[in-house]
Specification:
Elements lengths: L8 H9 L5 H19 L2 E4 L3 H13 L10 E5 L26 H8 L3 E6 L33 H8 L5 E6 L5 H7 L2 E4 L19 E6 L2 H11 L25 E4 L11 H16 L3 E4 L8 H16 L17 H12 L2 H13 L5 H22 L5 E5 L14 H5 L6 H6 L3 E8 L5 E8 L4 H12 L2
Parallel strand pairs: 2-3, 2-4, 7-8, 7-9
Antiparallel strand pairs: 1-3, 4-6, 5-6, 5-10, 9-11, 10-11
Helix pairs in contact: 2-3, 5-6, 7-15, 9-11, 9-12
Amino acid sequence: MIDLATLTISKARKALDTKEFTAVELASAYLAEITEKNPELNVYLEVYDDVLEQAKKADELIAKGVSYPLLGIPLAIKDNILIKGKKVTAASKILEGYVAPYDATAILKLKAQGAVFLGRVNMDEFAMGGSTENSAFGVTKNPVDTTRVAGGSSGGSAVAVAAHLALGALGSDTGGSVRQPGAFCGVVGFKPTYGTISRHGLMAMGSSLDVIGPITQSVTDAEILFDAMKGVDVYDGTTVDEKVYPAVADKQKLTIGVPWDLLNQEGISEEVKENFKASVEKFKSLGHTITDISLPHIGLSLAVYYILMPAEVSSNLARFDGVKYGLHVDGKDLLEDYMKTRGEGFGAEVRRRILLGTYVLSAGYYDSFYGKAQIVRSLIQEEFKTAFQSVDLVLTPTTPAPAWKIGEKEDPLSVYLADVFTVTANIAGIPAISIPSGVTKENLPLGIQLMATHMGEEYLFKAGKEFLGE
C-alpha cells in the first residue's frame, strides 16, 4: 500500500528507481483517490483515459535503467495549459469541447522526462478570480473544510496536491494564483521569475504578468518541477536567459527584509498577524538576519494590478469571437454572432474584467489610468531593486486572512483585496514562494510569502526548505 499522505516527488523517485512500487501502481493509487474524492471536491474536470498507458511507458524506461527526476511522477495540469490532443477549456463555456492542437513548451519538457499527466483540473474561468467560484463547471472545495473555497485561480491544482489526488500540479500565477490557493490549502505554491518558464501554450490572461508555476507538497518538489520546465524558448520572446542577471551569492545565512507597515492595512486578520510574527521569530532562530524595510509605493500595488491586468485581459480575450474556435451562437448578422457568443460564453467575472480593461484603455482615459499605472509599476520595480541591494529576501504573509466560506464574498472587490500581498511579485516580475506556516484556531491553513530578486530562486528554495525542515 502506497502512503500518499507522506509521499513527495523526491521520495517517489527513490521508490520507483528501487522498484519499491511501479509507476503503474503509483498512478493507480492516485486514480483510486480521484474516484473516491473528486465527486465531493470537484477538482478534476477530466481524468485522461491514457494514464495507465503513460505509466506503463515510464515503467519500461525504468526497467532499462533510465531515471529522470519526473519519470513516472503523476501530475495534475491546470485547465489553461495545452496538452496536444487533449481538451482544454480554461473552465469556460466558450471553449467547451476545444482540443489543444499542440503542447505547451512546459508540457513538452515534462513529457521529455516521462511525467504522467493524470488530467486537467478546475480553475477560475480564464484564471480570473481568487476562489475557483468563477468556474463554469462549479466550485472546487477546500479539502481541509469543504464549506470553504480552495483559493484561485489555480484552486483545482492546489486541492489536487493537498487532497493527495496528484503528486504535484501545474498552475498559472498572474497576481498570486499559485501562491494564494497554496496558502489556503496548506501546500507550497511557487511563482518563478517572469520569463524563466515559457508561456507558449498557456492561455494568456495578463501577458506581462502571467507565469506557469508548480504547486507541491514540499519546496524540494517545487524546485524539481521548476528545473524541469525553465529555459529560453524560441516560441516565447519574453523568456530570458539566466545569464542576463548576475548570479546570487552563495550564502549560508540570509538577510530577510520585513515591510511591517504593510501589516497595518485594514482587513488583515489578527491570527494572520500573530502567525506572521511567529514565522519571523522562526527565521531568526534559524540564524537569518531580520531587518525592517520600507517600500513606499507597495501599497499602490493592488490598484496598479487591477488596472494593468484587465487592460491586458481586454486585449487577450478579443480572440474568442465565435469564429476561430470554441462556442458559436448564431445571430442575425456577424456583429450579433459576436455579441451573443461572448455574452453567453463568458461568465460574469470575465465580462466584468473585459469591460473594465476596455474602459481604462479607451480614448480619454488611457493616460489617466493605464499610463499612470505603468509609471507606478516602474516605481515599485525600482523600490524592490533598491531593497534587494541590502536584503536577500522580502517576507510577508501570503494572504490577509484564511480561506473564506463558499459564497461568502458577493462583492468582487472584497475578493480582489485578498491579493494585496501577492500581486507585487507579478508587477515587479520577481520570484516568490508561499510556504505553509501554521493554522488558525479553526485549523485553517495559513502561509507566508518570500520574495527574491530576479533569478533569486535559489534563496527562496534555501529559506523555504529550512523553514519547513526539509
